[in-house]
Specification:
By secondary structure, the chain is of the alpha/beta class. Helix content is 32%, strand content 27%.
Length: 219
Amino acid sequence: MTARNQQGIGMTSQRTRDRLVARLAERGITDHAVLGQMAKIPRHLFIDEALAHRAYEDTALPIGLGQTISQPFVVAAMTALLLARQPAKVLEIGSGCGYQTAILAGLCREVWSIERIPALARRAEQNLRELKIRNVRIKAGDGYEGWPDRAPFDAIIVTAAAPQVPPRLLEQLAPGARMVIPVGGAAQSLWVIDNEPDGLVQTEHDAVRFVPLLPGVSA
């Protein structure tokens, strides 16, 4: 591919990203930092080439191995909820292909991310390397266990639905920290849990649809 063609593709994807961001703003995403970061990150690089033409639709897309890249609106909404407390150190459960990770990396000082499926963890690392994102560490592991030797965290974001909030993750919240997590089975909703001085405070937000959070490391 010539440099001229590459430039043309880059300009086209930027225009489509800008249109996506405009749609997100119309739907109620008001955090300018989140919208700005989503305008920067090329979502098409995180999905298979056969689906690249759908990269800037506001919809979840398959990334293989039974997993999906989340709907952009959901990514934006969860990120905005997480950033309300201005976290510096974030734990992400469910790296997937690394798209949500890349959004967080531009908005937080450091991101620690756990992915259950080793092949996806490697793919996410490669995607982030290609974008020269260096403030992220990814490992293959059990999301239910979190990353205790790197705890506590200012924020924890979970990108798969748990039947109930994993206790080990709650233990890794710093004082004043926030967790954003989808909870449920067939019916799911987004929960926000704040670690307040008097204890954990939970609020329930909109209905969502995520793949299930599964324990253990899958080969």
